[in-house]
Amino acid sequence: MLFLCSVVLPVCGETARIVLFPNEYKSKPRLPSPYTVPYGVEYLTILTPTGYAVIPVTQEDGEIYSCMYYKTGKGKQLMVGERDFPSLGKTGLHSVPELDEKKYITGRKIGLINYLARPGRFSTPGFIGKDEDIISVLKNDNRIVSNLGLKHRDLAKPLFHVWNAILGGYLGTRRISNAAVYYYGHQLIINATEGKGYQESIFHDEIEGKWDIEISRELKPEEISILKKAFPDIAENAMTRLIRKLTTLHVSEMNPFYIMRYGFYEGYTEFRADPVAISLIFGLKPLRDIIDIFGKDLYGVMCPVPRGYKISAWNGE
Questions:
Q1: pLDDT given for residue 34 in this prediction
Q2: CA distance linking residue 285 with residue 145, whole number of Å
Q3: pTM for this one?
Q4: Res. 297 pLDDT band, cuts 50 70 90
């Protein structure tokens, strides 16, 4: 059994000895989740079928992770593609002029990446939409993240935390059903399934994936009221779709690596790790702030409306 010795809780300077998983507590430990100790180790609190537990989920560069070669290290979780994107490495965001000049990423031509990324090529749903291209996708999401007042690494970290919880076997093995994780005061529900095959990256890198991961949380009643007040004329189906897009992520273990390394959230596809959804689900930004930032454009950011439709008439399908 592992021990986390004498961590200082942010409650009147109190100290407490927290015993890690598989030890369980009958009540939720008075430890922030996520919590980082001074020497950099990161922890989450989870709800098990019989109690609460504290697990280590540190984002770090570890041994090789490879589905193809059955390597189960953490992989290079702190790596940023500075050679391809110097500004991303220095500032945490892309430079638009730098993106405009880009002809290659990881030594692979942009045209080839676009070809491989579209639906039906490297994956059936694709990494970008059939009418999207990698540079425009990077620009669009860079603008969204900048508007949120965040950096790409800020959005990669919580996904790495969830992935490290899965990788460590703390939420179950091979098939995870309704596991509960606490993150900045929100209870997140994790459902995940390990696939039999593996997914190759569209970039010339070592990133692979085989997990189908759903991360979600329910909106609080006051959040639903905020949404309805912001969009009073929206069609009911469209509101349902907006809420689903804001509160549910369907990703794989490839997504946090893509975000950290390239600022790539995938396009408007099945496995898009939407930056607005990440910021809301994990409590990086409250809904009221998100609406203040995007206003009436929020629906279009989350659920692009086909040309010729109005939000009030679009049913969200």
A1: 97
A2: 11
A3: 0.93
A4: very high
Question: Cα–Cα distances in Å, from 61 out to 2, 27, 75, 106?
Answer: 21, 33, 6, 19
Cβ–Cβ < 8 Å for 281, 186 = yes
Tally DSSP H helices, then E strands, for the chain. Answer: 11, 13
Residues contacting 123, CB < 8 A, separation 6+: 199, 271
CA dist 117 and 216 (Å) reads 26
CB atoms within 10 A of CB 175: 10
Convert the pLDDT of each residue in 96-128 to its tens digit. Answer: 999 999 999 999 999 999 999 999 999 998 999
Taking the C-alpha atoms of 181, 185, 188 and 194 in order, what is their torsion angle to the nearest 10 degrees?
Answer: -40
CA–CA gap between residue 266 and residue 287 (Å, rounded): 23
Does residue 61 sit in helix, strand or coil? strand
Question: Is residue 11 scored above 90 in pLDDT?
Answer: no
Structure tokens at 22: 């598989």
- The Cα–Cα gap between 5 and 232 comes to 52
55's enclosing H/E stretch is: strand 51-56
Distance CA 25, CA 302 (A): 39
Q: Which helix (H) or strand (E) holds 273?
A: none
Q: Position of tokens 């070809």?
A: 115
Q: SS3 for 149?
A: coil
Sequence-separated (6 or more) residues with CB below 8 Å from residue 55: 20, 21, 43, 44, 45, 46, 165, 168, 170
User: For 236-267, b where at least 16 C-beta lie within 10 A, e where not — what string?
Assistant: eebbebbbebbbebbbbbbbbbbbbbbbbbbb
CB atoms within 10 A of CB 30: 12
Length in residues, the chain: 317
